[in-house]
Amino acid sequence: MTLSGKRILLVIGGGIAAYKSLDLIRRLRERGAAVRCVMTAAAQQFVTQLSVGALSADHVFADLFDRQDEHDVGHIRLSREADLIVVAPATADLMAKLANGHANDLASTVLLATDKKVLMAPAMNPRMWAHPATRRNHATLVKDGVSFVGPTKGEMAESGEAGEGRMAEPLEIVAAIEAQFDSRPKPLAGRKIIVTSGPTHEPIDPVRYLANRSSGKQGHSLAAALAKLGAEVHLVSGPVAIADPAGVATVHVETARQMQAAVESLLPADAAVFVAAVADWRTAGSAEEKIKKVAGEGPPALQMVENPDILAGVGHHAKRPYLVVGFAAETQDILKNAAAKLSKKGADFIVANDVSQDSGIGPGGVMGGDRNRVRIVSKSGVEEWPELSKEAVAARLAELIAERLKTTVV
Ligand SMILES: Cc1cc2nc3c(=O)[nH]c(=O)nc-3n(C[C@H](O)[C@H](O)[C@H](O)COP(=O)(O)O)c2cc1C
């Protein structure tokens, strides 16, 4: 019951993602929260007051000028009686209204009148999200102290549309809400940390690529764990099938060279942790057209060239972060390889994991699986950690990073 006793005012905007808000209400109540809902007129085109009222087990507020509601609760009380206001889906319109101080319906009036924190989960067509007006409104709202979760990338409800604009999934929104109430100490407050995660894809031609089995689970968990300790986390993610972590600024890349450019553009930082399984090689050139299979001719010879070493580049960079941490995925001579990597790459410590099939970690092994067993290799020796879930490894590693950064000045 992580949200026991918390009062959430959920503002539901008029987008197709409003159906996910029904599930959000359930997830919040499961965790002990009391959920009261405000619906815009547009929201009621997508889901009914009946469903929202039944799931929240409370009266649903929808009309600023409803005499009964205004007499019983009133829009000012409604905006103040909550511990947190969550807007999901936050439409482009609701963002524009709050960014510009409009208050011409119950939802926008409540948002303007509140003295409580506001968390928005935007959902809109990718072009609406990318429009300069929405970009400006988003920046204004961030400056005004509004928090955001998502949007994420993916397929849109409209057929044939994809991109950034999908509302975060209900459980991600729940995690962002829990983070708002997390009053534990934040030893990484004021620290900027770069994390890389996932595999890279190196194109062979427009349809084929070289990749590896990295899922991004360890890197994404670490980004989330660092954010929980208060860090400003910038995650540079290769192509993965998992959601962006809540409270983390995520940049999506495909190739090693794009990952390197993204990481370097984020410097300076207090720490950088390289969890991504970056391809060591790429093909010498990606074919412009799909390489055809020609009868009688054998398979094409792929000529490989070396990719940039992102960890070593940052480890020896003029703007080197105070703390540089690398991950070493090895299948043999794990400690020897990790120790060699430590000095060659200019890292402070290496998190070595055995990704061989017989690592004893299953199902799925380390790469792609949910568990990990790591050793922390530094100049002062090797620390063996027991087999843990990737989230637990992330939490422990985040504590270790916080400990190492403690002595530096913010
Ligand atoms: C089928 C349909 C889907 C829509 N989906 C969205 C959406 O996902 N995000 C958005 O910002 N607007 C969406 N709109 C437009 C909003 O409903 C419209 O801007 C409305 O005025 C928003 O009102 P509200 O912000 O008061 O809820 C959609 C409209 C239609 C007809």
From TrEMBL:
GO cellular component: phosphopantothenoylcysteine decarboxylase complex
Annotated Flavoprotein domain residues: 6-179
Amino-acid positions noted as binding CTP in the UniProt annotation, renumbered to this chain: 280, 290, 308-311, 327, 341, 345
Cofactor: FMN; Mg(2+)
Binding note for cofactor: Binds 1 FMN per subunit.
Pathway(s) this gene product operates in, as recorded in its UniProt entry: Cofactor biosynthesis; coenzyme A biosynthesis; CoA from (R)-pantothenate: step 3/5; Cofactor biosynthesis; coenzyme A biosynthesis; CoA from (R)-pantothenate: step 2/5
Annotated transmembrane regions: none
Region described as Phosphopantothenate--cysteine ligase: spans on this chain: 193-410
Name listed for the protein in its UniProt record: Coenzyme A biosynthesis bifunctional protein CoaBC
Naturally occurring in which organism (per UniProt): Mesorhizobium hungaricum
Domain DNA/pantothenate metabolism flavoprotein C-terminal: 188-403
HAMAP family, A to Z: CoaBC (MF_02225)
Catalytic activity annotation: (R)-4'-phosphopantothenate + L-cysteine + CTP = N-[(R)-4-phosphopantothenoyl]-L-cysteine + CMP + diphosphate + H(+); N-[(R)-4-phosphopantothenoyl]-L-cysteine + H(+) = (R)-4'-phosphopantetheine + CO2
